[in-house]
Automatic annotation (TrEMBL):
Family assignment from sequence similarity: Belongs to the GTP cyclohydrolase II family.
Presence of the UniProt keyword Metal-binding in the record: yes
Record's protein name: GTP cyclohydrolase-2
Free-text function comment from the UniProt entry: Catalyzes the conversion of GTP to 2,5-diamino-6-ribosylamino-4(3H)-pyrimidinone 5'-phosphate (DARP), formate and pyrophosphate.
Substrates-to-products reaction catalysed: GTP + 4 H2O = 2,5-diamino-6-hydroxy-4-(5-phosphoribosylamino)-pyrimidine + formate + 2 phosphate + 3 H(+)
Record: residues binding Zn(2+): C68, C79, C81
Gene3D superfamilies given in the database record: GTP cyclohydrolase II
The organism's place on the tree of life at top rank: Bacteria
Record organism: Streptomyces marokkonensis
Binding residues for GTP: R63, L64, H65, S66, E67, Q84, E107, G108, R109, T129, S164, K169
Cofactor: how and how many bound: Binds 1 zinc ion per subunit.
Keywords: GTP-binding, Hydrolase, Metal-binding, Nucleotide-binding, Riboflavin biosynthesis, Zinc
GO molecular function: GTP cyclohydrolase II activity
Cofactor(s) the protein needs: Zn(2+)
Amino acid sequence: MTEKVGVLGKKPPRRTGVERVVNAPLPTVYGKFQAVGYLDHDRGDEQVALVYGDPGTDRVLTRLHSECLTGDAFGSQHCECGDQLAAALRAVVAEGAGVVVYLRGHEGRGIGLLAKLRAMALQAEGLDTVEANLALGLPVDARDYAVAAGMLQDLGVRSVRLMSNNPRKREALVRHGVQVAEQVPLLIPPCESNITYLRTKRERLDHHLPHLDAVAHLS
C-alpha cells in the first residue's frame, strides 16, 4: 500500500503536541463532569480531562492522576491510587469546579501493566517498589507530564492548586508552563497491605506523607 505524500511528493509533516478531539457530558456517582478527550500526537496515547463546573484560569483545583488499572478499577490495596482518584473527584465537586487529568500510559509509574505486575511479584518477595523496578532493569519513574500541561493550557488553566503528595508533579508542571499556586495534600489512610509501599514513596521518592507517622503499629 503506497504511503500518502503531500504537495511535490513530500510527506506531510508529522503532527506533534496534544489535540482536543471531543467533549462529552459524563454523569458519575460523584457528579456530572465534562469528559474532554485528547490525542497525544507525540506518544500516541488517548487522554481525558474530567472538568467540573467552570474552573476558570487561576488557582484551579487540579489532580494529575496516573493510570493505575489495579487500583482504579480493581480496588487494589497494594497502593492508594483508587482512593486518591475518588477523593480528587469528590474534592472538585465539593469545590464547585476543578479538573482531574487522567493520564494513560502512566501505569506502574510509566513502565506498563505487565512490568508493574512483575515488580509487584518482586515486592511480594521482599523488595521495595524502587528496588523492584531497578531489578527488572527499568526506570524508577518514567512518567512525563508534558501532555498534562498541554491539556490544562488548552482548557485555559494558567495556575493550579495541585492535589498531590509528589513534588515531581509540581516541578514538571512548572517546567512546562503551568504555575502551581499551592500543593494540596491528598492523604489516604494506609492499611497493612500498602504501608510498606507508602513508606518507600516517602523515604525514597520524596512524597509528602506526614500522616504515616501516626500509624507506626502497621507492619
